[in-house]
Design goal:
The N and C termini lie close together (12 Å). Helix 1 packs parallel to helix 6. The chain is globular. The chain has 6 helices and 5 strands; from the N terminus they run H-E-H-E-H-H-H-E-E-E-H. The chain has one domain: Maf protein. The protein is α/β, with parallel strands linked by helices.
Length: 157
């Protein structure tokens, strides 16, 4: 599926960028596993802390109002990274992988929020998925990346 994403975006001369938190760069890493990734992946940021999300363009009041674990923050991440990297698409990912966050004690420990931003059409796609407490962090990241790949492929088709 990522090979097809790369093919489609390359043909259209379009770019994607990611701002990832709980996935720790797993999406960008998966994209770069395939030939041609450098022609479509403009930039990727791993912003584990609130302060770096803010430095990358996420509005502090969004985090304060909705929490760092929200679709609003994921949308802001997606748009901010798209703007920062001048990409056609931005993907923002935030959530918890079954662990407490003493710095951000709100939100469920098994929810991940994903937003895809299409700059050309100023449109968002929003997703919330629940991950498994039985699976390892690595398995959960793989599941999230697979979920995003399928959704993103449908968006760009």
């Amino acid at each position: 599926m990522f090979e097809e994403i790369i093919k489609i975006l390359t043909e259209r001369k379009e770019k994607v960028s990611t701002m990832e938190s709980c996935t720790g760069g797993a999406l960008a890493s998966e994209i770069t596993n395939y030939k041609g990734a450098s022609s479509i992946l403009n930039y990727s940021a791993v912003t584990y802390s609130n302060s770096f999300k803010i430095k990358m363009g996420v509005k502090k009041d969004i985090i304060d109002k909705y929490s760092v674990y929200s679709i609003e923050t994921a949308k802001s991440m997606a748009k901010s990274i798209s703007d920062f990297a001048n990409s056609n698409y931005g993907i923002g990912i935030t959530g918890k992988l079954t662990c407490e966050d003493p710095s951000n004690p709100v939100g469920a420990d098994d929810e991940v929020f994903i937003a895809v931003y299409d700059k050309n059409n100023n449109k968002f796609w929003e997703y919330k998925i629940n991950i498994s407490s039985i699976k390892t962090r690595k398995e959960n990241k793989e599941e999230i990346v697979d979920f995003i790949g399928k959704k993103f492929l449908n968006i760009i088709k």
